[in-house]
Amino acid sequence: FNQPLQPSEGNFAREMKRLGYETGFVGKWHNGNGGVRVDRETSNRIRGMDPDDPEAKEIYQGFYKGLARHLKDSIGFDFAERIWAGNKESQPVPQVMRVHNLEWLTEGALKFIRQEREKPFFLYMALTVPHGRYYSDWINDDPLATPAGMLSERPDCMPPREEIIGLLEEKGIDTRNAIATWIDFSVAALMEGLKEKELDENTVFIFISDHQSRGKSAAYEGCRVPMFVWWGDRIPQGTRIDEICANIDVPSTLVDMAGGQVSPGNPQDGMSFLPVILGKEKEDFRQALLLELGFSRSVVTKKYKYIANRPPESIALRMQEEDKEYNATGRRRRIGWAGSSNPHLPEPGIWFYADRDFPNYFDKDQLYDLEKDWFEQENILD
To answer: What is the pTM of this model?
Structure first.
């Protein structure tokens, strides 16, 4: 979990660079910092400091610049700005700066898009939001706060946050949906930026999520996410494709879109789904997909999902002991199939409430009919 990407490994930034693309990164980087770090004691100490304190600035700006250098020198991005090192809560910065700032992130993406260049470009924009279920408390965060320091003025590439809340209230939409509307305005800003440069018809825009909130950190429905692809007139609007593909297919697809082939030294588990989205694939793109998470393995077809939970004996014994305690006291179980106990106190039960969302969570073997049971509620193994 959270394995760092090594400089010696191939990656899609290097592949696109090899094919003549200028590469850019903005947003959340959660794949290792290349040895650039602030120890926990120092990070906790500056948490209570003023952002303008010279000592705090020296620490967090040094870390930020080091991370940007790592992304450029070791990973393969020509442009790396507006960076969060993991989740907002883990930034080595004062507390007021441990926030989302989608306007600042979007402004950085537009800066890259608007640059004058001779080459085509590839931008990887990793949003820090939503990072949770429905909520709107981000509206109270300081819009001048960023992981790199405090801004002197708000970025103006998106409507002010107060207007977003007002818009939802005016339309009678629950303001807990505001974070989705915030993302909508970010996407709109990027599309406008492409139109300004007359690149909208010749740019592929892929919008995808790493997981859902429901069933996160398990082999359940959290692995099933939508993906949107825009490519001007190349893909007819309203096209819907229901094939089995996964994040492992994204690098091969990007290289295929750019007219190249993946480097022999960068082998892929996935394959290009470009023929599928262009309507050229007549048969099933993939018959089945293997999911792995902790000590859970899952096989997915269009109709079925089979989950096998096989923890080592030491973890199985811990789970059995906790089950006895549950039967005696009724206190929720906290040790999941990955072997770790839920670290989020006072949240009851299994991490991300998977034992409540999925009633068969503790079954060793599970089978679901995905045509009838999208939410994986009825184990039909028997």
So the answer is: 0.93
